[in-house]
TrEMBL record:
Domain of life: Bacteria
Record's protein name: Endonuclease/exonuclease/phosphatase
InterPro entries hit by this protein: Endo/exonu/phosph_ase_sf (IPR036691), Endo/exonuclease/phosphatase (IPR005135)
Taxonomic source organism: Nonlabens ulvanivorans
Keyword Hydrolase: yes
Length: 329
């Protein structure tokens, strides 16, 4: 049952890896040939529309039990371009949210980017920029990966800095790629320290409009206990509000029958506060409702994916969304 809106002012902030949200057109500048009708995935307009319908249905239900309304902010990953996001927010389940889009094309070879969807009635954008990431290791060829998206604005009148991430994958092995994710974490912190040189993100006693409130969200391709998160971000004024959600039997994605929590949300200490009239972190969760799960077979309970390899399954995504509730008394 949704909590009465007379009791609290509440907003859902979510992150969702959309698993290759590509349109059906071939873009010669990126490696998207698989996602065409003639490509390996046989990606047809009908399959694309079904994907949009399912993703919009999932997003429309994230946090609704707690707030009774659509999410205020949704960070997303694995989107091809701004057009697919425009198609997504025009789906019947989301169109009433009156969402805006912040997206930049990144240098990723596959053409997958991060982006931010936001309720224009609740969140006011001041500025945004992509943060270029260099993860080229010594003696390696240049490694192109996703930019980090930085957005500055006001959520219901409270200043907020948002970073949307999709860090280098573990495709070549977790240990051999660990340094790349640590490198991205360091570059992220360099930007945060530039934005917040006085370290006001750790100050919980500031007036409503004076604190530096930061949200770091994304698919980090690392778990909460890994070096990039535990050593490079959390000691510098952040709390991982999603970390307690990782269990042996629960996570945001499943690989080889092992749960991981690569999708995470971290907030600055300033959002763990009791400042009058300020928004504060209330709770976090994984939206792993039965509707998003495989319901039979050996993968029962895992995310219902769009593809397994090149086999079309027609599901939502290989990740579950994660989210948090910000509350104001």
């Amino acid at each position: 049952m949704a909590i009465s809106q007379q009791a609290f002012e509440q907003y859902t902030v979510a992150f969702y890896n959309l698993e290759n949200l590509f349109d059906v057109h071939n873009d010669e500048d990126i490696l998207d040939q698989d996602f065409t009708a003639q490509g390996r995935k046989q990606w047809t307009p009908q399959r694309y529309q079904k994907k949009l319908q399912k993703l919009s249905e999932a997003i429309s239900k994230v946090g609704v039990l707690q707030t009774g309304k659509l999410p205020a902010i949704i960070g997303v990953a694995e989107v091809e371009n701004e057009k697919v996001l425009e198609d997504l927010i025009q789906q019947p389940k989301l169109v009433k949210g009156d969402y805006g889009i912040i997206h930049y094309n990144s240098p990723d070879e596959r053409g997958i980017d991060v982006a931010l969807l936001y309720s224009k009635k609740i969140f006011t954008v001041q500025s945004s920029t992509p943060i270029a990431v260099d993860v080229t290791m010594p003696n390696d060829e240049p490694d192109r990966t996703r930019d980090i998206l930085y957005v500055k604005g006001f959520l219901s009148g409270m200043p907020l800095h948002i970073y949307v991430n999709h860090w280098p994958s573990r495709r070549d092995g977790a240990d051999s790629t660990n340094e790349k994710r640590v490198t991205v974490a360091k570059q992220l912190m360099d930007h945060i320290n530039h934005v917040d040189p006085q370290n006001d993100r750790t100050n919980q006693a500031k007036h409503l409009l004076e604190g530096t409130n930061i949200i770091v969200m994304g698919d980090f391709n690392d778990d909460p206990e890994n070096d990039s998160i535990r050593n490079e971000i959390l000691p510098h004024g952040f709390q991982n509000v999603t970390a307690p959600l990782k269990k042996f039997h629960r996570g945001s994605l499943n690989h080889n029958f092992k749960w991981n929590l690569f999708d995470q949300i971290m907030v600055s200490d300033s959002l763990i506060n009791d400042v009058p009239d300020a928004l504060y972190f209330h709770q976090a969760d994984i939206f792993d409702d039965i509707m998003l799960r495989q319901w039979k077979g050996k993968y029962r309970g895992q995310p219902a994916r769009t593809f397994v390899g090149k086999t079309y399954k027609g599901g939502y995504s290989d990740h579950f969304p994660v989210y948090m509730i910000l509350r104001r008394n």
